[in-house]
UniProtKB/TrEMBL annotation, chain A:
The keyword Calcium does not apply. The keyword 4Fe-4S applies. Keywords: 4Fe-4S, Iron, Iron-sulfur, Metal-binding. InterPro entries: 4Fe4S_Fe-S-bd, 4Fe4S_Fe_S_CS, NADH_quinone_OxRdtase_chainI. PANTHER family: NADH DEHYDROGENASE UBIQUINONE IRON-SULFUR PROTEIN 8, MITOCHONDRIAL. Residues 34-63, 76-105 form the 4Fe-4S ferredoxin-type domain. Coiled coil: none annotated. This is 4Fe-4S binding protein. It holds the Pfam family Fer4_7. Transmembrane segments: none annotated. The lineage of its organism: Archaea, Thermoproteota, Thermoprotei, Desulfurococcales, Desulfurococcaceae. Gene3D superfamilies: 3.30.70.3270.
UniProtKB/TrEMBL annotation, chain B:
InterPro entries: ComplexI_49kDa-like, NADH_Q_OxRdtase_suD, Ni-dep_hyd_lsu, Ni-dep_hyd_lsu_Ni_BS, NiFe-Hase_large. Ni(2+) binds at residues 76, 79, 369. PANTHER family: FORMATE HYDROGENLYASE SUBUNIT 5-RELATED (PTHR43485:SF1), HYDROGENASE-4 COMPONENT G (PTHR43485). Residues 130-299, 303-375 form the NADH-quinone oxidoreductase subunit D domain. The keyword Magnesium applies. It comes from Ignisphaera cupida. This is Nickel-dependent hydrogenase large subunit. It comes from the Archaea. Its cofactor is Ni(2+); Fe cation. Mg(2+) binds at residues 57, 336.
Amino acid sequence: MSIIKEVIKNFFSKPSTIEYPRKAEIPVEKDFRGEFYADLKKCTGCTLCALECPARAIEMKKLPENIKLKHNPRGLYPVVNYMTCVYCYRCVRVCPVDAFITTPNYKLSSVKEVYSEEKTLKTLGMG
Amino acid sequence: MAEREATTVIKIPITLDIPIGPQHPAIHEPVMLKIYADGEEVVHAEVNTGYNHRGIEKLMEKNSFYKDKFISSRVCGICNAVHENCYTRAVEYLAGLEPSPRAKYIRVLAMELERIHSHMLINAIMAEVIGFDTLFMYIMRDRELVMKAKEILTGNRVEAEIHMFGGVRRDIDDVKKDKIMDILKKLEPRLKYYRKLFEEDPTINSRLAEIGILKPETVLGYSLLGPILRGSGIKSDVRAEDKYDAYGEIPWTVITRPEGDSLARMLVRWDEALESLEICKYILEHLPQGPAVVDERKLPRVFPPGESYARVEAPRGELVYYINSVGGANPYRVKIRTPSAVNIINSAFSYVGHSIADVPVILVSYDPCISCMERAIVLDLKNNVEKRVPLKYIAQKKVRL
Ligand code: SF4
Ligand code: SF4
């Protein structure tokens, strides 16, 4: 048995290389463990996610002065460093109020650090 | 005294000292094989490690049981699900937790998918090492199918993160089941094709057959594990011996081959991949009903004192976790013994007598996974320190040359 037949067949088939990101997208599952951020409408600032993160990717930050939330008396919210995060979703699963919004976005490579701060602040709907 | 020195001096000029690694294109892993050759023939081999020490066992002592779960699955990228399974089960034995039947089946599914892609990977690398790059590309292309199946099941192509104490972290529904089933159906003819190719192709046969023959007693004597053991005709598999998780309920057989050469080891891997495929199919068809996912918020924060020990059959052989707890949130000690630590370090003898070109073939037939064996090496290096005192002193500049 030789591989020649297979080679000839493949010679005429279309290339299996995906030209990502220039020409093609890689389809992923809807529940792929991708980018996620906290929803300020739910988060109580309990810090549990930051304590449980195995990669120490979450830092608790103070909310901006003009934002006062009744359900968040300490005024803290989690900021994920996407470059440190290993996407284990431990934070998502331990959050007592299910505050994290998860997305299958995997396109997170960057030359500088990327944080979830902006996305989280936007969840209040005021930008 | 003088006579003894003379014998050492004579040996060095006639041997050729060839370092294979630590950055060798054939193995893609940071390990160095120091080969002493007389002409083409290998007369002595040394395995040098320590290029990839990460201190994971220490890291695990410093972190909580929960964080360690995620650290353990990062010991090795290829076999992350078996690492988590072994660690998770060790913790479960300690804490007296028991996963539901459905969770057990899902765990086995994740581990068997992993076995398929791991075996495909090493067979692809074998093809590359013997100069058969076309075959390497084809196998890697078809391996993507399994990666996709794993993505559907676990949410990531590589890092499964599907285990949690007392269950799993994700369940599968009928849509996912069908998707994985379709992938498996596509994969089956490919696996069978490659298996046949390895068995019959004259190029592969002339490079692999009768290379690195290990007799059953040698394999046992050096405690080699996994497909190496089974490639030498010894029927030993932790899945069959311990029947952990759902392996006791799923019909499957332990694959062995009597030849004991590199080809036999690769064929054992292909047969095991096919067997794993059947296991996966069986699981998808017979998945028990009931809950599988545990609520991570309701698990205990602290664990009782005690010791526990778990082992699994990783794609490369028996993997062992030993946990010692003095109570509390952190383990006192986590000891990991990975199959590659045994397989690679103990196998230096098997290169002797072969030609230099066969060394990468034999090494790859052992499926080396250096990232997971590194931590265990430290002790071994200490044992070797006495032998290499001069070298060490040279490095420390205690001896001037
Ligand atoms: S996904 Fe894991 S690593 Fe990332 S922030 Fe959450 S807990 Fe940390
Ligand atoms: S665990 Fe949930 S509620 Fe607590 S700080 Fe994190 S996101 Fe907010």
